[in-house]
Design a protein that fits this description.
This protein is an alpha+beta fold. 15% of the residues lie in helices and 31% in strands. Strand 4 and strand 5 form a beta hairpin.
C-alpha cells in the first residue's frame, strides 16, 4: 500500500474547499502520511471532528476570534492548523472552506499502518499495549507521527505532512464532539465522524 501511495499525488486543494462538515466526512478513509525524522509513518483516517467557523461556539475562531494561535484557521484550504492542549499534546487540524473563513477539521484518529514500530517507539509503548490504542486520539496520533508546532500553517500539498487518496467508506457514525462542555447549543451537534 505504501508503494501505491508513493505513486499518487496528495489530495488537491479543491478537496478541502468545502465546509468543515463535508470535509470531515470526506477525509474518512484517506491516508494521512508524515515524512518527519527521516521516516514515513501514517495510516487511514478513521475519526474526524468538524469546527465550523465564527458562529460555532465550539470553534477556536468563534465570535471572529483571531489570535496568534488561531491565525492558521484563516488560511488557505488544505493547510495545517496545529495547536497545543493542556500544555502537553498537539492536535492536528486540516483547514477547510476558503481563506478568511475559519473552518477546520480535527483529525482524531488514524489506523496505524506504516512503520508501526516507529510509531510505537515514539509513543513509548510496548507492542502489546499499542495494538488498540496507538493512534486512537488526537494527541496520540501527533506523537506517533511526530507532528508538532513546526508544521503549523504548512501545506498538505507540498510539506512533510500530506493526505493521499484512500477508500471512502460507504457508512460511518455521526456523533457529538468531545470536550465541549461550554459550547452551548453546539455542545451536542453530531459533527464528529467515525468509521463504524
Amino acid at each position: 500500500m505504501l508503494g501505491k501511495i508513493h505513486r499518487q499525488t496528495p489530495l488537491p486543494q479543491s478537496f478541502y474547499a468545502e465546509g468543515a462538515i463535508v470535509v470531515a466526512q470526506r477525509l474518512l478513509g484517506q491516508y494521512l502520511i508524515s515524512r518527519t525524522e527521516g521516516v514515513i509513518t501514517g495510516g487511514a483516517i478513521v475519526e474526524t471532528e468538524a469546527y465550523c467557523g465564527v458562529l460555532d461556539a465550539g470553534c477556536h475562531a468563534f465570535g471572529f476570534r483571531r489570535t496568534t494561535r488561531t491565525q492558521a484557521m484563516y488560511g488557505q484550504p488544505g493547510s495545517i492548523y496545529v495547536y497545543l492542549i493542556y500544555g502537553l499534546h498537539y492536535c492536528f487540524n486540516v483547514v477547510a472552506l476558503r481563506p478568511e473563513a475559519p473552518h477546520a477539521v480535527l483529525i482524531r484518529a488514524i489506523r496505524p499502518e506504516f512503520n508501526r514500530d516507529v510509531m510505537i517507539r515514539r509513543r513509548q509503548r510496548s507492542t502489546e499495549s499499542a495494538n488498540h490504542s496507538l493512534t486512537d486520539g488526537p494527541g496520540k496520533l501527533t506523537q506517533a507521527l511526530a507532528i508538532d508546532q513546526r508544521h503549523n500553517e504548512g501545506s498538505l500539498r507540498s510539506g512533510p505532512i500530506q493526505i493521499f487518496p484512500g477508500s471512502h467508506p460507504s457508512s460511518f457514525e455521526a456523533l457529538p464532539r468531545v470536550g465541549l462542555g461550554r459550547a452551548g447549543v453546539f455542545r451536542d451537534v453530531p459533527w464528529r465522524f467515525r468509521l463504524e
